[in-house]
Recover the amino acids of this structure.
């Protein structure tokens, strides 16, 4: 069976969920926020309490609409990301998954690592703008410019760390390598242990992204691919060096 079937099915399923979600009203009481229109903000001493009441009121009248839309877009994003990954790795059938390979060169690995890491910045920006636009935050909340700036700063500061980690992982080996190469740890016990833990975290981000934060899904998927590629490269390092 052609590998493109999986991405297409994911996109189709996501489109169905989005279509159904669009037909559902967002709230059982569309005017629920009017109860906060007369708040005298000059007299408010505890904004945390006010914000908690706002979120509690929102939860009482929310329908499954936003959850359906998020899940639907998550499936679509997963399908698109998977299609891009299959194209990058020349995966044409499900049999090819057993021999899935890392990027072909170290420079390609480093370039893809930088691109994927930095892609989290616009993904998070778009998510913040999207959730703001659909009314997920009270109107007195802090500007989304604050977390947007924090994401950008973290992304830029973390890029050298990511590239250094990639260089350490690839030291002494030759690409490409098969993602499922054994041994699981090899001689690089520490490096591979870190990469396996990071892979588990990336998988969690991917799954939570599919469910509730779809714009992060392609970045998380490619992060998982790179971490598994790095594990394989580190695992076979000594074996290839002895050839």
């Amino acid at each position: 069976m052609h590998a493109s079937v999986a991405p297409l099915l994911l996109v189709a399923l996501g489109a169905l969920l989005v279509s159904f979600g669009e037909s559902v009203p967002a709230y059982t009481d569309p005017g629920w926020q009017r109860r906060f229109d007369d708040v005298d903000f000059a007299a408010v001493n505890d904004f945390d309490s006010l914000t908690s009441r706002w979120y509690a009121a929102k939860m009482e009248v929310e329908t499954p609409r936003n959850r359906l839309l998020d899940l639907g877009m998550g499936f679509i994003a997963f399908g698109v990301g998977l299609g891009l990954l299959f194209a990058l790795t020349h995966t044409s059938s499900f049999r090819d998954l057993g021999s899935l390979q890392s990027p072909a060169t170290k420079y390609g690995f480093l370039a893809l690592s930088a691109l994927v890491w930095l892609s989290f910045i616009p993904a998070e920006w778009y998510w913040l703008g999207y959730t703001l636009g659909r009314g997920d935050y009270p109107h007195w909340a802090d500007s989304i410019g604050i977390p947007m700036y924090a994401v950008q700063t973290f992304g830029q500061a973390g890029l050298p760390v990511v590239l250094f980690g990639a260089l350490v992982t690839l030291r002494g080996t030759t690409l490409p390598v098969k993602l499922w190469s054994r041994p699981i740890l090899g001689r690089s016990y520490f490096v591979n242990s870190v990469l396996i833990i990071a892979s588990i975290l990336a998988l969690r981000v991917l799954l939570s992204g599919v469910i509730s934060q779809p714009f992060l899904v392609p970045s998380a998927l490619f992060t998982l691919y790179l971490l598994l590629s790095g594990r394989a490269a580190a695992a076979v390092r000594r074996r290839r060096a002895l050839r």
